[in-house]
Amino acid sequence: MAKIGKCILAGAGPGDIGLVTLKTKETVEQADVIVYDYLSNPEILSWSRPDAEIIYAGKKAGAHTLSQTEINDLILQRAKEGKLVVRLKGGDPFVFGRGAEEAEILAQAGIPFEVVPGITSAIAVPAYAGIPVTQRGVTSSFTVFTGHEDPSKEQPAIDYTALVQSRGTLVMLMGAGRLSKVVGELRSNGASPSMPVALVRWGTTGRQETLVGQLQNIEELTLDIEPPVVAVFGDVVTYRQRLKWFEDRPLFGRRIVVTRTRQQAGALSARLRSLGADVTELPTIKIAPPENLMEFGELVRDSFQYDWVVFTSPNGVTAFFDLFFKLYDDARALGNARIAAIGPGTAKRVKDFHLAVDLQPEEAVAERLVEAFQQHESVENLKFLLVRAANARDVLPKRLTQMGAIVDEAIAYRTVPETDDITGAKKRFIDEGADLITFTSSSTVENFVAMKLPWPQGIKTASIGPVTSATMKQAGLNIDVEATQHDIDGLVDAILGLLGR
Fold first, then answer.
1. What is the CB neighbour count within 10 angstroms for residue 374?
2. 3 annotated active-site
3. Which is it for strands 436-439 and 255-258: parallel, antiparallel or unpaired?
4. Is the separation of the CB atoms in 312 and 415 below 8 Å?
5. Which of the following is catalytic: 59, 80, 286, 348?
6. Which of 77, 90, 337, 480 could cross-link to 460 by cystine, CB 3.0-4.6 Å?
């Protein structure tokens, strides 16, 4: 008997990836097939398995990639093949998302399904614009309605008279193209011409724009506004003057490109987004196992024989201990070996494994680490295991050897070009450009240049440190700012100094 799969209708939230629920993240990580909408943040797809089938089913005004019938057929077909299908829908699946229609189709076909609610833009977008949908003493109710009713209906289902008489906040979704009609209906049904109105475009993202007016003039103010737009009608709009917070952050509206590996981009992206930046993750590299994994494994196995184990990157720490704990079930198997880390980011990764760092230079470059060893003790005849990337700079092994140390190199990983672009970041970079691009290693620079993408006019650059900056200069790139502290915190501080308000 053929195995029947399952479909999960999951809310992708209003746009800010931080507002995606843990349950939706879990479903995306497990999915065999992901069918996602136009309003789903494409960065969510970076959580998917490498072998997952990813299908864009975007529907925006005047441009439908797949019809609703085709989407229904698609999720049914994949589920009948025994696959776990995640139908990723912007906002909440059951708030004007046609999720109920898809659930009915699945139920009729006998396909198991689940619904994972999402944070709806009806409450999230006003909140990010500084507008509470309810406020004691102003209104104790709010109504969500669509400006995009089914065109096949003979009579409109929305009772505008009841909306006006409710005296509550009115939140309209999907109505940018029909704003004039909705405004006319509200006014003809008794709404005051002076009713406050706010239109919020791309709410909860770094592209958020907010326009405020009154019912009598909002059309004049928003002649060229394009979807996606959430409209808020009511006295609560006046609170925006005092409560707006999202758009006041120091990097708000700055478009910043992060070129780190997909696994590592999250920390930098999260910091930049928390400061208001519109972040595009455009990984130029990915981490691959070393070509000689057996040799690396033997060195990890024998690491207890060394006086020092030296880590030069967080990736090296991860690769080392992932293998170490497959060989040993006790960290004490490292014996008396002491640990050195090139910088704070690497040291933090070591501490994630509940191990202390015995030596760390003040500046995260190989030259300073050598100097730190010189000041710490004589290294003559001491055995060093350098855990590093393939094709890394030879400063450490060469200088330590010259000082009399016995040095073995454990090649823990390789950086290779990232060829996948499941989030469409390259197209966005080409179409929209950016204000700044970040480089966190020489390999990110080299592989970005190899992509041969057009260089947006006026774009600035940020480097994590002098080694990366040297590679940028060799590639013919200007360096607008270099981090004083060569880690993510230092890079963010440098970006704030360059672009912050």
1. 13
2. no
3. parallel
4. no
5. 59
6. 480
Q: Measured between alpha carbons, how far is 144 from 153 in angstroms, rounded to an integer? A: 19
Q: Following CA atoms 42, 46, 48, 49 in sequence, which dihedral angle do they give, to the nearest 10 degrees?
A: 140
> Helix, strand, coil proportions of the chain in percent (round to 5)?
40, 20, 40
Which two tokens mark 206? 């770094």
Q: 16, 32, 37, 92: which one is catalytic?
A: 37
Beta bridge partners of 144: 171
Catalytic residue among 172, 174, 195, 472: 174
What domains does the chain contain, in order, with CATH numbers?
6-119 (3.40.1010.10), 123-247 (3.30.950.10), 255-284+418-499 (3.40.50.10090), 292-414 (3.40.50.10090)
Q: Which residue's entry shows tokens 């030296």? A: 310
pLDDT tens for the chain, residues 1 to 501? 567 899 999 999 999 999 999 999 999 999 999 999 988 999 999 899 989 999 999 766 555 578 899 999 999 999 999 999 999 999 999 999 899 999 999 999 999 999 999 999 999 999 999 999 999 999 999 999 998 765 555 566 799 999 999 999 999 998 888 888 999 999 999 999 999 999 999 999 999 999 999 999 998 877 667 889 999 999 999 999 999 999 999 999 999 999 987 777 788 999 999 999 999 999 888 889 999 999 999 999 999 999 999 999 999 999 999 999 999 999 999 999 999 999 998 999 999 999 999 999 988 889 999 999 999 999 999 999 999 999 888 999 999 999 999 999 999 999 888 888 888 899 999 998 999 999 998 989 999 999 999 999 999 999 999 999 999 999 999 999 999 988 899 999 999 999 987
Q: What is the pTM of this model?
A: 0.81
Secondary element (H or E) of residue 198: strand 196-201
37 is known as an active-site residue: yes
User: Angle, to 10 degrees, between the axis of helix 442-451 and the axis of helix 466-474?
Assistant: 30
Question: Under a CB-based contact definition with an 8 Å cutoff, are residues 367 and 386 in contact?
Answer: no
**For residue 146, what is the enclosing H or E element?**
strand 142-146
Q: Which residues contact 116 (CB under 8 A, 6 or more apart)?
A: 8, 9, 10, 11, 21, 23, 24, 27, 93
Contacts of residue 128, defined as CB under 8 A and 6 or more positions apart, other chains included, come to: 16, 200, 203, 204, 208, 246
Dist CA 118 CA 86 (whole Å): 13
Assess whether the previous peptide bond of 397 is cis (omega < 30° from 0): no
